[in-house]
Structure formats: C-alpha cells, structure tokens
Amino acid sequence: xTEALDPKTCSIERLVTxxxxxxxxVAGVKTAARRNGRYADPGEVMEMDxxxxxxxxxxxxxxxxxxxxxxxxxxxxxxxxxxxxxxSMHRGMKWLxxxxxxxxxxxxxxxxx
Length: 113
Hints:
alpha+beta; 4-stranded antiparallel sheet
C-alpha cells in the first residue's frame, strides 16, 4: 500500500531554483531534492533548460538517516559537503538529525518523450 502524502506546500517549479543545482540536475548529477515542504506528486513533470524530468518518488526522511549515498543524489560527494551547503543556504539553520524533510526523487525523461 502506498503511503498517503500530505498536501503540497509549494509548486514543482520551485523545487530546484538555484542555478548551480539546476546545472547539476540537467547534467544528471542531482537526482533528488530535499525540502521542508512537499513540492511535487509522483508522476509530475518539471522542465529545466529545455529538459524534462519526472518525479518518481516522494517520501519523508529524517536528516539523521541521510548517508553519503543520499548526498550523492543531491549532487555532493559526501554527506558532510551536503550539510555545509544546506546550512550555508539557510541563514540560522542548524543541522538537526531529528528534522524531517520531504525527498523528491526524479529522473530525466527521454528527449523523444
């Protein structure tokens, strides 16, 4: 049975907006985005720089459960580098292991789609 999702708190167009992150998505290096709110439904499509990406999974995760593999989904070599990036992006934020975020996993659609 699929877990029921909370209502979306933002639109899919706001999921990835930082230029460096957009570049990582287009290059296929970033395949997930973690946010405080839910920005997309599974199956929803977003467009970046003329490329389309479909959201495959949306689920909750605590920051304390993140691993280096999760950081690689975000386009970083290690979890420590991802932590540094996220904390630098959000003034006053502290990395709290018990904090839950929404994970949005996506993949590039074939250009022929």
